[in-house]
Design a protein that fits this description.
The chain is an all-beta fold. 0% of the residues lie in helices and 46% in strands. The strands form two sheets. Strands 2, 4, 5, 6, 9, 10 and 11 form a seven-stranded mixed sheet that branches. A four-stranded antiparallel sheet has the order 1-3-8-7, with no helix packed on it.
Length: 124
């Protein structure tokens, strides 16, 4: 089970940190990530990470501004979002796939079996 939190409204240039509490299994061998979707737009990959090796992957629109990380002890995934822009406004989803990121295309939504309900981020 994946449950996101930390969304909200922020002014352009500001920061937010999203959290995803993962339960039900040990996620050390899962590829974990974040996707987002804005109304009327296609779903977009934000970032992914493999807890087993720490490898990270970022979508081109967020690279250099967002950082994905995790706390293995807490089974919690994070997304630190800095220099937010209005175009970052979207519903953000935590996702997981039961295999290493290197064995899939980690920025492709179809590889992820588990999705959280989402948390809304609004940048004005």
């Amino acid at each position: 089970q994946l449950v996101e939190s930390g969304g909200g409204s922020v002014q352009a240039g500001g920061s937010l940190r999203l959290s995803c509490a993962a339960s039900g299994t040990t996620y050390s061998s899962y590829c974990m990530g974040w996707f987002r979707q804005a109304p009327g737009k296609e779903r977009e990959a934000v970032a992914a990470i493999y807890p087993g090796g720490g490898d990270t992957y970022y979508g081109s629109s967020v690279k250099g501004r967002f950082t994905i990380s995790l706390d293995n002890a807490k089974n919690t995934l994070y997304l630190q979002m800095n220099s937010l822009k209005p175009e970052d406004t979207a519903m953000y989803y935590c996702v997981s796939a039961p295999q290493a990121c290197a064995r899939i295309q980690p920025l492709v939504a179809g590889y992820y079996d588990y999705w959280g309900p989402g948390t809304q981020v609004t940048v004005s």
